[in-house]
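Supplementary Methods, section 5.1.

A reviewer requested that the exact input to the structure prediction be made available. We therefore reproduce it here, unchanged from the version used in the analyses.
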Amino acid sequence: MAAGPTVSKLMETYPGKIRRVVKNYPYKYRDFARISAEASLAANDQGKYWEMHEILITRSPKLDRASLISYAVEIGLDVKKFTASIDSNAYKADIDADIKLAESMDLYNTPTFYINGRQIVGERPFEYLKKVIDEELAAAK
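The structure derived from this sequence is encoded token-by-token as follows.
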């Protein structure tokens, strides 16, 4: 199970008990990584961040500009606004700040999860992450 669906399942399993925070860390050497980060933030402008996020994860590596625009149509975004945002790099400063944060933490792999400070690098099965969350929730009581 990919990180996106795994995390969504965790969010459903622990309603109100865990928080999901996503930071952008587009790989320098991966095609379309930067524009994909822009696309998720442009979708957020229209209240559809998570819908775009899930599509980007499940449809990767098909993340070229034309595909991103088709995904925007699919999830019901105002395509003119969306396209203007990704074409202008409207979120360059935000993405650069996320990259700087990742580098300051010596983080070089995605996905990387932090559960109460416990770092988990790479995709992990639902049951693995659930076990860590259960341990942390028990320790917090």
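The mean pLDDT is 91. These observations are discussed further in the main text.
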